[in-house]
Amino acid sequence: MKKILRDAAAYGDAKDARAKDPSLPKQHVDLKLEALIPVVRGQMPVVINANLERDINSAIAFVGEMKLKAIISEAPRRTGSLISSRLKHSGHRRSGVRVPVREDDPYDAAFTNAGLLSKAGVKIAFQTNDSAYSRNLPYHAGMAAAFGLPKEEALKAVTIYPAEIFGIADRIGSIELGRLRT
């Protein structure tokens, strides 16, 4: 993955150089690398699915090393203060709430994690991973609010926060004149 991202950065630099100096040799078009230019330049976030502490720590280290903007998708199964603090202070974006799947998870982990992350200062957004289930987002927000997420934060987690996390809050995410309707 690192090699591909470094190749994309070099490809983008070569493309820019050619645009400035047409006497440089013509570059072969590589659509894969072309698509990654906004990612390696920090113009587009990369979404990383991680829910175990070691995976989140690895993701934070990876995006820091590669200087990427990232969204950590999926909540940790056990939201410890250490992992919440690392997510907050890493400066990376965060989204998602995961239903626990391990038998040793607390019964209410799917509902309390959002409140714990929010309390630690991590911006959250609810996700469904399938547009057919987007109708359930208000229920996820409501359950998280019932288990400790402030109601105002629950509303923001289905409106403005997802737009902010993806860097499009200038166009969508709130109910205001001039915003796109989705």
Q: What descriptive keywords fit this protein?
A:
182 residues; mainly alpha; three-stranded parallel sheet; 8 helices; 3 strands; 6% strand; elongated
Fold and architecture overview:
The chain is mostly helical and 182 residues long. Helices cover 47% and strands 6% of the residues. The protein has 8 helices and 3 strands. It has a 3-stranded parallel β-sheet with strand order 1-2-3, covered by helices on one side. Strand 1, helix 3 and strand 2 form a beta-alpha-beta unit. The longest helix is centred in the N-terminal third of the chain and has 19 residues. About 4% of the residues have low confidence.
Give the helices and strands, then pairings.
Blueprint: H1 2-20, H2 31-40, E1 46-49, H3 53-66, E2 70-73, H4 81-90, E3 93-95, H5 109-119, H6 137-146, H7 151-156, H8 160-165
Parallel strand pairs: 1-2, 2-3
Helix pairs in contact: 1-2, 3-4, 5-6
